Amino acid sequence: MKLNQFAALAAFTLAAGAAMAQSAQEAAIRKAIEPRLGDGAKIESITRTPYGGLYEVRVGGDIFYTDAKGEYLFIGRIVDTKTFQDQTKARLDEINKIKFSDLPFDSALKMVRGNGKRVIAVFEDPNCGYCKRFRQTLNDMDNVTVYTFMYNILSEDSVTKSRNIWCSADRAKAWDDWMLKGKQPEQAPANCTAPHDKVLALGQKMKVTGTPTVFFTDGTRIPGAVDQKALEAKLASMR
Predict the structure, then answer these.
(1) For a surface tag, which of 34, 144, 155, 160 has the fewest beta carbons within 10 Å of its beta carbon?
(2) For the whole prediction, is pTM greater than 0.70?
(3) Inter-residue contact 207 to 96 (CB < 8 Å)
(4) Is the domain 100-237 a CATH 2.60.120.10 member?
(5) May I ask the CATH class of domain 3-95?
(6) Alpha-carbon distance 157 to 61, whole Å?
(7) Average pLDDT rounded to a whole number, residues 9-18
(8) Residue ranges, CATH 3.10.450.70, the chain
């Protein structure tokens, strides 16, 4: 066997051995941690990080960290002390990204202000107080297109309200009338159907756990009623 062939074989053997060891390590961590998560939660992935030998454990849309034996959990943020970049947030943004253009916009309410060049999608519940506050923020903005997915997760009444709004002659106006003014929409005709089931399944697939949740055209999201200053800053950063 030639020297270069031997070197290549040795490198391949070392790489394979390292991969097997890594796989065994991840299996041991999974065995130690997963039974303790409760509620049938499943670990989606375990990845070694460059942060002091910690392992990233991904469960749903969240991540936490553990040691090589899975004996301790570290729940919180990892921040680079040189740049002060939030490494955990950056990682969460990466793993929770969506393809914005794939959203089913025909199942959303559409509101356009000004030139509408800045586009966002929002998952909101009609009974959500924070959503009403965020709606006021949007009402004060210009040059924006907002797709609102009525994500009914707070009560059965949310489903009824959303259906009445969806079946209104002017859906966007009916939504704003309710969210901003508390004006109830008229009762929907019996033969009118709303995309409740479709939107609910979509939100669950995308791991939307609360309202409002705002999605941007770069695929990232912000959970919660972000204020106008932060929203403007996010939109400006995408230019």
Answers:
(1) 155
(2) yes
(3) yes
(4) no
(5) alpha beta
(6) 27
(7) 49
(8) 3-95
